[in-house]
């Protein structure tokens, strides 16, 4: 048994410099050329993630705006009153759907890394490194983008500070918990119980956030909720590329044009409205919509007239690059089927496939350059896989009346990264090691990972402090005077650079 453990505890031989990944004959090239090719391929995978993000958001929007009929009795007239009630609670939707969906690239990457390390007593480094690095990317660069998204002079603040504080506390506790199980409880190893407790805390986060939203006694913070519309998003704005997560004007009929939904106002009388509804029912045939997705993917979009030849050529070049991804993701079923659930699940499946390609490319980059996988995870992988988080928060900061969802997506994604993104892969590995070897999961370079957590704590304190000061001085976390919005944005980016530099030096053993 000891011989088996000695063999199993050896690090996996993921460096295959003598095998090809992209094409035959690439092993004859120099390591520098190969590293460049793998990096370009990695960036192309990140472009694929951005392409599937649009369909993921459409499906999430369709899920979130689902409502049901609720019959109540009017206390005065005693007559039954029928009203539409949202199926999803906004707070739960932000945590369980928005944050989980946008964090799925990191979750799937970490899970794939764990599965391919089954049989090894030592955990892989791509998953934890990517998820900790993604937390920093969410907290700093995404805040930096969101703070300048509101129109010049406008302000957007968190309306429900109680829910945000609950989410923030659970987010910080997630990283404190990770440090405790790495350095205090069972240093440098993860047991089955630690992994199981990590996953279960995600359920506690959902329960506590819901309790705070509903203001349950004894378990909620007694903060009054600010003014919050029933529907958080104003009507469609032509300047916005994507639809929002929470929709409005649901009573209006919907027409389908080029696979895009648009609201039709009631301005031409009931007979015209009846005709529009009839046309809508005919146009909602999902085979025709699905076919249109492939047509849209193959056709070049009609762009506005551009006087600059350079801009026109750039647009043509970009459309050529993204066309293969658009055609591939056209296989995702239309997002209006089954309230968006089929499109949501299929989008996550495609994201998992792209994540698998990312893991293979990262292995090869680390192999031919000698750079630690942790360093690559903190930088390139964290930024690339966090793209859906960035786009989701950007859309929320632009479209929504308050800053709740934009900032909640950041804090909740950080919690999801630990409780689910690290918890599930470690649960897979620890369960396998427990039943096969009766051994825990050993964490390679646990000291470097713990050092990164300490750097994250220090820099995140500086980020949250500025958000609180903006709330006190300016009156809002996002927007405000343009100069101060940009100063805040630059400050957040500096914090991210500090985290990346010191974390990379720490996991490399330099400091």
UniProtKB/TrEMBL annotation:
Topology versus the membrane, per the UniProt entry?
A: Multi-pass membrane protein
Q: State the GO CC annotations.
A: endomembrane system
> Can you cite a GO biological process for this protein?
monoatomic ion transport
Subcellular localization, as worded in the UniProt entry? Endomembrane system
Keyword presence, Membrane: yes
Q: What region holds the Sodium/calcium exchanger membrane region domain?
A: 38-210, 340-504
- Xref: InterPro entries: CaCA, NaCa_Exmemb, NCX_ion-bd_dom_sf
Keywords for the protein's UniProt record, in alphabetical order: Ion transport, Membrane, Transmembrane, Transmembrane helix, Transport
Domain of life where this protein originates: Eukaryota
Q: Is Transcription regulation found in the keyword set? A: no
Residue spans crossing the bilayer: 35-57, 161-180, 192-211, 313-332, 338-358, 365-384, 446-469, 490-510
Instruction: Quote the protein name from its UniProt record.
Output: Sodium/calcium exchanger membrane region domain-containing protein
- This protein's species is Urochloa decumbens
The taxonomy runs:
Eukaryota, Viridiplantae, Streptophyta, Embryophyta, Tracheophyta
């Amino acid at each position: 048994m000891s011989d088996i453990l000695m063999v199993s505890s050896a690090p996996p031989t993921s460096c295959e410099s003598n095998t090809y990944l992209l094409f035959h004959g690439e092993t004859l090239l120099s390591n520098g050329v190969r590293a460049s090719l793998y990096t370009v391929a990695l960036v192309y995978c990140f472009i694929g993630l951005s392409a599937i993000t649009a369909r993921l958001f459409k499906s999430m929007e369709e899920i979130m705006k689902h409502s049901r009929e609720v019959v109540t009795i009017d206390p005065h007239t005693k007559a039954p009153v029928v009203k539409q009630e949202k199926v999803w609670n906004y707070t739960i939707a932000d945590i369980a759907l928005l944050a989980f969906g946008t964090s799925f690239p990191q979750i799937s990457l970490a899970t794939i890394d764990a599965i391919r390390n089954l049989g090894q007593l030592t955990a892989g480094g791509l998953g934890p490194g990517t998820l900790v690095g993604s937390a920093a990317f969410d907290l700093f660069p995404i805040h930096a983008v969101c703070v300048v998204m509101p129109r010049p002079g406008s302000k957007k603040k968190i309306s429900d500070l109680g829910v945000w504080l609950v989410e923030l506390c659970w987010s910080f506790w997630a990283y404190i918990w990770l440090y405790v199980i790495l350095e205090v409880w069972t240093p440098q190893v993860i047991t089955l119980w630690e992994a199981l407790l990590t996953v279960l805390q995600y359920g506690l986060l959902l329960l506590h956030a819901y309790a705070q939203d509903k203001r349950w006694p004894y378990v909620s913070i007694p903060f009054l909720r600010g003014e919050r519309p029933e529907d958080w998003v104003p009507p469609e704005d032509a300047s916005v590329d994507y639809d929002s997560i929470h929709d409005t004007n649901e009573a209006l009929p919907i027409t389908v044009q080029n696979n895009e939904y648009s609201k039709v106002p009631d301005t031409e009388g009931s007979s015209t409205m009846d005709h529009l509804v009839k046309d809508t029912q005919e146009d909602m045939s999902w085979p025709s919509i699905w076919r249109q997705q492939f047509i849209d993917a193959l056709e070049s979009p009609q762009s506005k007239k551009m006087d600059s030849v350079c801009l026109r050529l750039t647009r043509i070049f970009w459309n050529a690059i993204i066309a293969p991804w658009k055609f591939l993701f056209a296989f995702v079923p239309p997002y209006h089927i089954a309230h968006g659930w089929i499109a949501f699940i299929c989008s996550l499946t495609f994201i998992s496939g792209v994540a698998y390609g990312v893991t293979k490319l990262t292995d090869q980059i680390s192999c031919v350059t000698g750079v630690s996988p942790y360093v690559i995870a903190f930088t390139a992988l964290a930024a690339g896989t966090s793209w859906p988080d960035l786009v989701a928060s950007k859309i929320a900061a632009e479209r929504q009346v308050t800053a709740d969802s934009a900032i909640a997506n950041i804090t909740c994604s950080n919690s999801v990264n630990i409780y689910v993104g690290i918890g599930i892969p470690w649960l897979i590995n620890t369960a396998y090691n427990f039943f096969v070897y009766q051994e825990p999961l050993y964490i390679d370079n646990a000291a470097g990972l713990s050092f990164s957590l300490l750097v994250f704590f220090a820099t995140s304190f500086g980020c949250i402090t500025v958000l609180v000061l903006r709330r006190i001085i300016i009156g809002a976390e996002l927007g405000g005077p343009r100069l101060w919005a940009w100063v805040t944005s630059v400050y957040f980016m500096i914090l991210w650079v500090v985290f990346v530099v010191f974390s990379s030096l720490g996991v490399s053993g330099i400091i």
